[in-house]
Amino acid sequence: MELIWNGLVEAVRLLARADPGVVDAAAASLVITGSATLLSIVSGIPLGALLGLGRFRGRSLLLSLVNTGMGLPPVVVGLFVAVLVWRSGPLGDLDWYCTRPAMVLAQYILAAPTVIGLTAVAVQSVDPMLGVQLSALGATRWQAIWIFVRESRLLILSAAIAGFGAVISEIGASLMVGCNVKGDTRILTTAITLETSKGEFGSAFALAFILLALIFAITALTTWAQQRRRPQ
pTM, whole model, 2 decimals? Predict the structure, then answer.
């Protein structure tokens, strides 16, 4: 308990003096995870809506693949992305190994299936009679999809939160493709691992508390956006 208490005190001290290492790691976490989450939302919501509402050959297989992707081990994703961006890999010319873009790519692969899968479930939860009514009113396919997305927006926001949660605390993929470079690709989770490996448990707990506070702040904001009621 003493280590945990000391970690909490150290977290307050580091934040109070704006420790450069902590600020850099927190900023990198926000930029990398935020980028991956945003990409997964932009691509995942339309794809999820199409999978949820569409009727086409191979749909069940695609849904199965998406659901499988929701449980992808981060280290496996990190391995595949590392091979892709390795100097002799298919994307080697991009020179992404040990860079933030590689970390964004890995985290996107982890977050996208969650957003796609939960969005598909969200649009399927809308009363199917809405589709009949829209068809009778002459709505196009894309207009109908947009209305289904709008009607299930609270659940879709939950999908976005889940996508964010899938990557903000992951470490395996980020460590493998980002190399934990101080001031560049070092994020809070990889910094915690480094401090723990050095036996600096006080610093590790401090970083852990800062990460938890960051996650709480972001999820609290999105939860407020999800639950707030519009004025009548």
Answer: 0.87
